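Possible race condition, two jobs.
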Amino acid sequence: MRANPIGKIVAVRLALVPRGRPLKSVDASASSAARFGAELRGTRVAQNLTLSALASRIGYTLQHISEVELAKAGVSRAFVEACDQALDAGGRLLALYPAVRVEQIVERENRETARRSALGLPQEIEDDVRRRDFIGLGLAVVLLGPEAVARASQDDWERIAHAWTREVASAPDRQALLPGLMADLKRLAEAGGPQRAIAQLSVCSAMIALSGGDAATARRWWSRAHVAARAEGDRELTAYVAGQHAYDGVYALYKPSQALTLANRAVAVTSAPCAGRMHALSARARALALLNRRREARAAMNDLERSYEQLPHDVARRTIGGWSEASAAFR
């Protein structure tokens, strides 16, 4: 007796349809987590996927996915990315993650504040891990407090910009810093400057984009940083932007010949030893080494090492990356 092909098709489709008890309702307006959960469930159900089927695709447990859909469990960026890709959501789920993350941080801090209050402990945010969590809200909030952000002075913003530079330089996952950085850039734009801080935060944004492999976005942020630096009219700031651009460019953004042109322009901005000039000299030495212009590369390295010894004591030399690597490239 021949098998019924239509029956097989119906059986397969029925196997894909979520079964069991009716789905618990989710109020998407209750919170950012609830909105994400509702969107995740809606996308999954629209594709006739069971929780088990999705779990097998993304490597997370059925129970965890269920709790996320009901806004009963926290989510990580890795989880959201996995769901977005598995469900072919085109970034729709990922776009909801920053708001969920901020909400999680605020809820955690509220619980911690209540605990400290009950124990009579001070409320200051001193723990480095917790402080990093709050970066999702923007360093302006972390350093000044939510009430004082609107009254931030130029000195305040310079302090915030320097703090962002340190965070981006040391973060193991730069992409995690992006929501907070964008929040501070928005505050800066609303406040109308200062241009110095806009230039520095734009450099940070370019570095994050580049670390994520988004060269086009990185170029746009570099362009904005150059514009802001010129508007500020500070040669050291201009050298910093140009030098950092050249340094990142030679490693990931441009061909060696293009990076060399950029580095030479950056070196020409100022002859005074500073962080920007050091990055520019490092980029020039690296680019020459990659072009196999070994004699010029050695001369550039000698210039770099002499300049390094002349750096002012208040310059954090650990932020001047790459010059030793450039030297090793042609030894």
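Job #2 (started ~2 s after job #1):
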Amino acid sequence: MDSFVVQFWDKILASLRWLSPLELICIVFPKLRTHGWIDVWVFLNLIFSIVALFLASYTHLHILHISCVVYAAIRVLEIVVYQAKIVLFDPYRLPRSTSDYAVRSYRRIVVLALHNYLETILWFAGIYSVFRISFGERAQILSSAVGALYYSIVTMATLGYGEITPTNDWGRIIVIAHLVIAVFMSLIILARFIGFLPTPRTLDETER
């Protein structure tokens, strides 16, 4: 029987899925609930995140910046909820006596996770570009797509060079959210790589 904390987070994640654009699309168009459509969705959002980064960096339309930030927040939340569900909850929903749970492909899961990781970097790069005023005197670095992408990668990798630092609470909140998601995504991808590596045969009789 699951513990209270497991049931609590399972319900939270189940509720958050209603904020997912993919979930809403699949409700309206049930036939799109396929592996192929999910692949297309991930790929299209990766392209969109690149476009949004350039729009955030090189346009000055306030409404466009707000739209990019709002969709970036929704999409990153969708990625985190999706990864948490398929790793921590979905495989355990079926009774242990059944063996119906299966993945489409191990390589597909790893590739999709890497897409999600790269997409998260790009979305946060766009957010940093929009909120560059919250990062002090050297914030002009974030005014270019390359500079914003550089800072997002440095933060995602938790390197912390110290070239750019937040100067107000908005900036600090963005960096905190990014760091928490960065650690989570890194652990997820590492776990997937390790989990899908074949176990070599041992010659030690005690280990067989």
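DSSP finds seven helices and no strands in the chain.
Logs attached separately.
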